[in-house]
Amino acid sequence: MEERKPDIKKGILHRVQVLYVLFFIIGLMIVGKILYLQYGPKSGRLRSEGTTITYERVAMEADRGDILACDGRILATSVPEYEVRMDFAANGLVDSIFLRDVDSLAYCLSDFFGDKSKSAYKLKLINAFRERRKNRYVLLSPRRVNHLEIKEIARFPIFRLGQNRGGFIAKQTSRRLLPHGDMAKRTIGMVNQTGTKVGIEGAFDSVLHGIDGNVLMQRISGTFRVPVPDEMNVDPVDGIDVVTTLDVDIQDVAEKALREQLETMQADWGTAILMEVSTGEIRAITNLTRKGEGNIVEDYNYAIGMNMEPGSTQKLASLITLLDDAGASLDEKYDTGNGTAIIGRTKVTDTHGYGLLTLKGVFEKSSNVGFAKAVNKYYKDDPKRFVEHLYKMGLNEPLHLQIAGGQNPVIRKPGDRWWDGTTLTNMAYGYALLLTPMKTLTFYNAVANDGRMVSPLFVKELRQYGQTLRTYRARTMVSSIASDETLKEVRAAMRGVVEEGTGRILKSRYYKVGGKTGTAQIPVNGRYTDRNGGRHYLATMVGYFPEDDPKYSCLVALKTYNAPGHRRFYYGASLAGPVFRAIADRVYAKNTAWQDPLSQRKEKTDEKPRLKAGCADEMREVAYRFDVRYEGRRGRTDWRGVEAVDSAGIAYTSYEGWSDEVPSVVGMGLKEAVYLLERRGMVVAFSGVGGVESQSVPAGTKVRRGMLIRLELGCTPLEPGIYLKEKKADSSADSVASSGRGD
């Protein structure tokens, strides 16, 4: 036994030695592998891959610039939105915590979004947790949420632990917001992910977008990353704000008026444009399409993209050509007969027969026959001269708008493929040529602008951090479309259209309008009558105001369809006129500078203002503000009557009434009278308008609760002879405005 012990000991030592050698060899291999990876031929690539896994350069999107109205109000802006996601394989997400709180998280998600039940959310969460090795990132929100909502969601169970321990991920995106809804939506435009660019958003995308930056991010654990200082980091440069020429208030009126007219008249589509005369700035532009009952959308910019035969609005160009080039006179006469005439190879018709008219009358009545005869009289043998004068006035010039989608005018000339023996006659009254509504308005604006034609302007400046970087001005297309004498004559004719002719709907007692109506048939497949016998019409009203000193030009056009047997309105005055009038009225009301101050009206300054009886202190204040001399005691809150001292002053007569007697309210406004009488429990009935002229129950009569008293209204306040009996002041009476008008 003793001899075997040394053998066992020796065996153990041998095994230990073998293990030492083995471990030493393995260690050498590890060190060798490390040295190979660090300094071997593949070390550079491996080092680069390791850095890539740990570090990542992430793009930082620049904030898109805003689109602003002319007064700085926001028309389009970018707001952050978030998608709620969860990393079910986050390093710090513990199984026990998830299983403990998953029920509460499911309840919160269901309650917040309301699209699924609590049990449905819980099942989705548990299944995603089980499948986390296959798909660790799962979208949980059925919609994008805003900043306030994401802050609330971040406090939900599990999520409140953060990204590493709770797996909460809020993926930020950006959404373009239109604070005023669909207002001028097509003009404001859009830029989508497919690269489609429309309107101002598309035209100024390069400056609105800004310059994206980038930052080096280091992954700490899981998906948690932090920015790392690096000389290659580039801060994003925010986009530049675009200031448009649009006026929100006028735009709102234009859209509402056009929308209401489309719905009421069952028209197919319409456009309305308001332009500032001297600058060419577009203050309002709306384009609406009726898709069905109650469904009106803005999906196409008809103002700049719809090239059509303008109809009678083109007669202004014909009139200028006749006066300025042919030397015609507004007083020369043309026989329009019964409204039908054969002129050359063309049958020309009017809706009515006007008989013998002067050229001015032809324009005011918008006679096709009259214009066809006048143009053929002077240009039948030289039609090229007529067309060349249209060109001279810039009617064939493209507008070169700041936004895309505009169509160019189409005006034929002799020798062109489609010119024939009927073209000149048709051109005379607005057919055989194509213009957009914007082009037509630009021409009328030139007449209002003393002959100077300017291109329409949608954007007036670029701005960043409140500082103007660039300004835009309208381009002068034609310095003068006609002589001063011709412009004077055609403006008189346009005034006559509103005063005596087809545009009387625009006649206003407050301001004058120079305008022209237009009603054009629209061809479909080359025919003006469809196979069912129906006709398509373009109804237009265009003009400027105030007529004596034009500040704005406006065009409204609506397209409608008249089926056989239907009698819808399709004339320019009846269909487009109400929208024009609504816009013009709003512009006039907004511009107080156009309105004469009350102090300049003679009938208001020759006599002092008249007051009604009422609260003494308020009467005294009104008299003071209107510089009317008064007599009476101060410092009392009683009610008083008034009497004339002379033409320049007022004397107060104190009314001292007891609560149990009927007061005299003669000379008061209705509000004050009703207030005093009802405080005493009386029932008041009245008839007429104005101040109180008489009362059915004499003053001083003892009051019985529920007593009926009738008031007759109609007297002028502060007439001589109106006196109120002096009695003890009713100091309990509340202050009521004594100078207000009777209801």
In summary, what is this structure?
The chain is of the alpha+beta class. Helix content is 33%, strand content 24%.
What this model shows, in words?
- With 743 residues, the protein is an alpha+beta fold.
- Helices cover 33% and strands 24% of the residues.
- The strands form ten sheets. Strands 2, 3, 4, 5, 10, 21 and 22 form a seven-stranded mixed β-sheet that branches. Strands 13-12-11-26-25-24 form a six-stranded antiparallel β-sheet, sandwiched between helices. The chain has a four-stranded mixed β-sheet with strand order 27-29-30-28, with helices on one face.
- Helix 1 crosses helix 2 (43-54).
- The chain is extended, with a radius of gyration of 41 Å.
What characteristics describe this protein?
743 residues, alpha+beta, Penicillin-binding protein 2a (Domain 2), Beta-lactamase, 4 domains, seven-stranded mixed beta sheet, 33 strands, 33% helix, disordered C terminus
Distance between the termini: 133 Å
Query: Overall pLDDT, averaged?
Result: 85
Strand content: 15-25%
Structural class: alpha+beta
Question: What is the percent of helical residues?
Answer: 25-40%
Q: Can you tell me the CATH class of the largest domain?
A: Alpha Beta
Shape: extended
Number of strands: 33
Query: What's the domain count?
Result: 4
- The CATH architecture term of the largest domain is 3-Layer(aba) Sandwich
Major pleated sheet:
7 strands, mixed
CATH homology-level superfamily of the largest domain: DD-peptidase/beta-lactamase superfamily
Radius of gyration: 41 Å
